[in-house]
Amino acid sequence: MTTAPPATDERLGSPGLLDRLVLRPEIGSLLGALLVFAFFSVVTERFLSTGGVATWLDDASTLGIMAVAVALLMVGGEFDLSAGVLTASTALVTAILATRLGWNVWLALLASLAFALAVGVLNGWLVMRTGLPSFIVTLGTFLALQGLNLGVTRLVTGTVQVSGMRSAEGYASAGFLFASTFTIGGTAFYVSILWWVLVTVAASVVLLRTRFGNWTFAVGGSAPAARAVGVPVFRTKVALFATTAFAAWLVGSINILRFTSVQANQGIGLEFQYIIAAVIGGCLLTGGFGSAVGAAVGALIFGMARQGIVYANWNSDWFQLFLGVMLLAAVLVNNALRRRAERVRR
Amino acid sequence: MTTAPPATDERLGSPGLLDRLVLRPEIGSLLGALLVFAFFSVVTERFLSTGGVATWLDDASTLGIMAVAVALLMVGGEFDLSAGVLTASTALVTAILATRLGWNVWLALLASLAFALAVGVLNGWLVMRTGLPSFIVTLGTFLALQGLNLGVTRLVTGTVQVSGMRSAEGYASAGFLFASTFTIGGTAFYVSILWWVLVTVAASVVLLRTRFGNWTFAVGGSAPAARAVGVPVFRTKVALFATTAFAAWLVGSINILRFTSVQANQGIGLEFQYIIAAVIGGCLLTGGFGSAVGAAVGALIFGMARQGIVYANWNSDWFQLFLGVMLLAAVLVNNALRRRAERVRR
Amino acid sequence: ACSGPTATNTDSTNADGTGTGAAQAPTGDLRVAVISHGTAGDAFWNVVKNGATDAGRQLGVTVDYNSDGDPGRQATLVDNAVSQGVGGIVVSMANPDALKTSVENAVKAGIPVITINSGSERSAAFGALAHVGQEESVAGEQAGAKLREAGKATLLCVIHEAGNIGLNQRCDGARAGFGGTVSTLQVDINNPTDVEARIKGALQTDTSVDAVLALNPQVAVSAVNAVKGASSAAAVATFDLNADVTGAIKAGDVLFAVDQQQYEQGYLPIVMLKLYRDNANTVGGGKPVLTGPGFVDRSNVDEVAEYAERGTR
Amino acid sequence: MSDQPLIEVRGVGKAHGSVVALHDVSTTVAAGEVTCVLGDNGAGKSTLIKVLAGVHRHDSGELLVSGEPVRFGSPREALDLGIATVHQDLAVVPLMSVWRNFFLGSEPTTGVGPFRFLDRRRARATTRSALADLGIDLRDVEQPVGTLSGGERQCVAIARAIHFGAKVLILDEPTAALGVKQAGVVLRYVAQARDRGLGIVLVTHNPHHAHPVGDRFLLLKRGRSLGSHEKADIGLDELTRQMAGGAELEALEHELRGTTG
Amino acid sequence: MSDQPLIEVRGVGKAHGSVVALHDVSTTVAAGEVTCVLGDNGAGKSTLIKVLAGVHRHDSGELLVSGEPVRFGSPREALDLGIATVHQDLAVVPLMSVWRNFFLGSEPTTGVGPFRFLDRRRARATTRSALADLGIDLRDVEQPVGTLSGGERQCVAIARAIHFGAKVLILDEPTAALGVKQAGVVLRYVAQARDRGLGIVLVTHNPHHAHPVGDRFLLLKRGRSLGSHEKADIGLDELTRQMAGGAELEALEHELRGTTG
Ligand SMILES: Nc1ncnc2c1ncn2[C@@H]1O[C@H](COP(=O)(O)OP(=O)(O)OP(=O)(O)O)[C@@H](O)[C@H]1O
Ligand SMILES: Nc1ncnc2c1ncn2[C@@H]1O[C@H](COP(=O)(O)OP(=O)(O)OP(=O)(O)O)[C@@H](O)[C@H]1O
Ligand SMILES: [Mg+2]
Ligand SMILES: [Mg+2]
């Protein structure tokens, strides 16, 4: 990413390529991912088959899209606990409009996008206006959305799910964009994997190469300092919340078009998986430091570990235990490296 | 708590009793609690009856015990995501020892206390040794404990719950201490309410009046600064993790002795309620600021809102919506005040 | 709706309930609290709730439905109902020990209690009026037996909520009824991608699996996708219904759906409590009132589909 | 020098809750002149600076920029009027690299439309040379600012303000953490900027720094103004005595030497 | 003054990752003497101080306290040997009140056994008077330190070190943020402590502060030692010249005056 300066400074010790690498927040997670990958490739047969790869990439993809957006937000110093439920809310809005009111799917998607952005902007606006921690504000939105999801679904359908998307007008074209598969080596991969890559690349470029990215680091690292040099803190943070909401809409759309039905309590609890993937990827909970690629890799670790355990055919009673040990191992293995980074960093 | 100094300084404006109050972190939550209390007292009939009070105090009590401990930990700058599951783990250990191995209940309680403290110390030790954020480390313990709870329970009992405590030896005396009721005005109140009060008072005194409390604020506010003036940062943080584990054991014991059975997936997700109660009570997520009383009041708000909604007979489909709006209202109503505090504070 | 002086209903299972009730209603309106251990938004318990509220609407009974998957907090909800002085309590007893004190307190306070779903063997001991429903394990057992009949040898039982006692009982029952090899798989119901991916992974890993038992219609649909994705020949069976599942049954993708007729588990207790208050009737004679299980397969799916659509099957 | 002062402060006051940090302070900042703000610790100097820079909004009094009364809602508004500030705290974002801090809020970009990316090469080069001009020779402008020494960090903020300052340059104790050489360079910069016609506000505790460059000296004490002096009216010794509140450093110096063996 | 120096530093080095912050530096701190550490920004002064205070562990060389070689694992160990330090950063915990910061790590308690509570009355009174002695008159010692002005904050750290310093007092740019009066008071304190037989290490950029009290001057540049001078060997002007690396403030002063109209 960065080219070394003409370093002939006697105050610099060893050339320090390693130290330079170590400074990148995502390095730790990359090593962790390699470890998990190697482990399951050796331990199980199916993990490395194209079918296997397709499965764990699929699992990681929607998580990854959200983790990347959440990572941006965390770099900006905020949390969004409503992100998980919002994936279900957007799917519900789309599904209700398309199946009950007979809207064209594309129109329904547009409407749910507007809805998602409204929620995101509201989150951001509340956080900035009230000065309350985003943890509390978005908790409120989280609970409110959760209630709305269930209440509205039951009101409209009498059940706790909305289904029947497949017969809605415009399903085929929208489904192609969000939920089709493409074939590599005879195996079908879901298009959500491409979305994930796209989102990661875009987020990475924005974060590292644009003014907005610079502001994101600044408002997360020290909002008063950023304000003092003229960074529009309010707008930046609101935009970050809106970005997260947009990602939630994307994932919601992928889900509703792929599964053609959506359950009212979907998405609950996933918000923490997003945060966890971002933190594994090197984001600081306190803001101001992190990377989009790291978050994507964090999601990959999650996906690989989750599916790897299934492939390894371990008793699924102990699933969480394996997952916990796996995660700890993945973050501990590069601990020496990370500490070195810490040491260099401050 | 504090007596005003002989303030005849011309640089101080109005006497500022209000501003002094506002500086206390728990004031916001107290106002919020009053609001919720007044609301449900007016809207519902039974909320204010002794039976009603007993119910919502009961609901708040175990949450409150944990919230207070978690608040101490958060003041010390750390999270413990394993706190919720640990309440179930300790209960499971007690129950399995007492019902399957036939141990005396007291002995089983001692053993599970040792287990809890071991988990707490392990959490603290890992966090301090590895330098990883406690969010990640305790997430690992969280998942591991969750897996262990399910795996061990199914291994030992074949089902996902352990029951039959009532017939274990020593149940009566242990039950008296942890799960009995006392009667006021003809209504039975659970003894867990007393434990809650006791824990809150003890934590408050420790936090505000002892060296350890001073160190807690310091390690959370700025660990390097605290280290530089000789505060034993390592020991302080480990002790805080152990305190949280102790509280989890207390709640686990109260639960197992009262309900005489425990389900393997109990406690999951509660860790965030603890954190939320602490934050509502004025704890900063970034550490270094907060109060035990505030966390207890945060739990009270939770308990009142949760049961109040039931008393109000609102459609439970919208339960979460009401809870979310309630919480937001409770924290927003004192927003003006809080902001004032922020202004004074920094 | 409270009229009709000739309340001569017998204690049969005639539950049409329109216009029943007694003129000499002792305390006016009847309020019943239904407290289940289902998580909010659970498909099974949604139907129970619909049953209870429909009965309430038809009989002029106020029904408050609340639920909490945590046994302790479910007990607190019972305490809450007692302190509200409701006219009747309907409670599901997945964890009888935890509810013992609260239910007994309710009985002591003179509130008639009816237990539903599981907990039939402890129901009477706690002083409940009656039990409606059936142990989850029985339903599981019959599902297992039916799969066995279909000639399946290796079964994968998908638990979508780790540690949920009801789901575990279903799988344990299936194990007993099936006889062959049964393995369980934990998935996260809130994450549909994860559900599909994990079932697919399990099918790819163990190619001998020839039957998948889902415990939730949403999971069933994912299981169908997973079976296709893994190019497996496994048959899918499920608990409960939704529009997608009825479609899949018609299409032959799903073998059958276990229908516990849980609508009755919500509906009947309201009727029973109303009868009990107005006419001191009891039902079941100390034996549980069984509601199922029934099976929905190709033969009867057309008939049931529309009920499932509106959330009553 | 000009009729219309760049900034005029009239009886400005500011309280934090019940704490009165500033009360009824007046001064002017004219083009081509240096206004020094002097005073004890806690006198309210930084508070005044923050009002001028748009960080705080004043509670009472008036603030006029180029004759127009203003109430800044944010530092951006002050910056847009050409007022650049080096704060005593709030200076930098520790986790960000030196060059990112340097250009924060005024990032140079290349490309057009949605493809306007940071011009990182230019940003790095500019940062390096701006700091080198102040006598700070950095190993690496990619280093997070948090790892710099106190003085280096201060220099990043100063270099930034000098680089972007258009009409008014406000410096709050810029030389406090600086070495002798760096402090000299900064003072020379201040003099150069003044000669280019900028208005300068300089806060300092060092009479040796204030006296050579200052044209006007505003003395604060406990949030109130002790009066304003033109350079002609006051010598270094008198200034030092005023700043020390009557005590004198020279006397102290003798005392210090006296006690040595 | 005594045969055995309180602290002896022999060829100490310290690197942060690949950044060499200190390389082969030696000096001594004797009882009743003031060792001044001088140097440019980023010269490594604070790094040296942190090694002495136990915040960093040195990578190479030797550190001897009262003749015993030590490698501090934590600042506590240094404090236990009577070494009190005022750091340039790491000074205080912003969210904590002034008196809590003052006594942090050395809290006074009353009562016995498990009922040993903070003696808050005494702590508050001591804090107030210790700060008043430095010329800082606080409104309220319950105020969070984060709301104090830069100089007030610095004074809290200094007052604390002076209060608890037993054998060695290390001050890293203590006077940087201080007013003329406060700086004078601090220097007088340093002189008094020296006369009581403490060993003092003083980092400063102000030759006017260093020269009157210093006995030994260690000059650092880019992490390396430029040599150590005894007071007798070096005058104020020479010291200033050395600190500025050849340039001279007086010349600069003339230049600054010269450019004025
Ligand atoms: N947010 C705040 N809340 C309460 N008091 C504050 C706040 N900010 C500043 N003060 C008080 O206002 C007074 C003036 O502070 P200010 O920072 O302006 O002083 P200063 O003149 O810059 O001092 P120094 O020379 O030490 O930097 C101080 O006594 C400080 O305690
Ligand atoms: N954690 C760290 N990581 C990388 N480099 C560091 C770190 N800490 C200090 N440095 C570098 O070491 C050098 C010496 O820093 P130090 O703080 O000792 O300087 P100083 O002499 O105290 O300067 P000043 O007078 O400005 O306070 C600086 O160039 C700084 O950038
Ligand atoms: Mg200041
Ligand atoms: Mg320094």
What does this structure look like?
Chain A has 346 residues and is mainly α. Chain A contains 15 helices and 4 strands. In chain A, the strands form 2 sheets. Chain A has a two-stranded antiparallel ribbon. A two-stranded antiparallel sheet of chain A has the order 2-3. Chain A is globular, with a radius of gyration of 21 Å. Chain A starts with 16 loop residues before the first helix and ends with a helix. The N terminus of chain C is likely disordered. Chain D has 261 residues and is an alpha/beta fold. Helices cover 35% and strands 25% of the residues of chain D. Chain D has 9 helices and 12 strands. The chains are: A mainly alpha (346), C alpha/beta (313), D alpha/beta (261). Chains in contact: A-B, A-C, A-D, A-E, B-C, B-D, B-E, D-E. Chains D and E meet through helix 5, helix 6, helix 7 and helix 9 of D and helix 5, helix 6, helix 7 and helix 9 of E. The complex binds adenosine-5'-triphosphate (2 copies) and magnesium ion (MG) (2 copies).
Write the SSE topology:
The complex is a heteropentamer, with 2 copies of chain A (346 residues), 1 copy of chain C (313 residues) and 2 copies of chain D (261 residues).
Chain A: H1 17-22, H2 27-43, H3 50-75, H4 83-100, H5 105-130, H6 134-157, E1 161-163, H7 171-179, E2 181-184, E3 187-190, H8 192-209, H9 211-221, H10 223-228, H11 233-259, E4 261-263, H12 270-280, H13 292-311, H14 319-333, H15 335-345
Antiparallel strand pairs in A: 1-4, 2-3
Chain C: E1 30-36, H1 43-59, E2 61-67, H2 71-84, E3 88-92, H3 96-108, E4 113-116, H4 120-123, E5 130-132, H5 136-149, E6 154-159, H6 165-178, E7 181-186, H7 192-205, E8 211-214, H8 217-229, E9 235-239, H9 243-251, E10 254-259, H10 262-279, E11 294-296, H11 301-309
Parallel strand pairs in C: 1-2, 1-3, 3-4, 4-5, 6-7, 6-8, 8-9, 9-10
Antiparallel strand pairs in C: 10-11
Chain D: E1 7-16, E2 19-29, E3 34-39, H1 45-53, E4 60-65, E5 68-69, H2 75-80, E6 83-86, H3 98-103, E7 109-110, E8 117-118, H4 120-133, H5 150-164, E9 168-172, H6 180-195, E10 199-203, H7 207-213, E11 216-221, E12 224-230, H8 236-243, H9 249-259
One adenosine-5'-triphosphate (ATP) sits between chains D (16, 19, 21, 39, 41-47, 88) and E (147-152, 177).
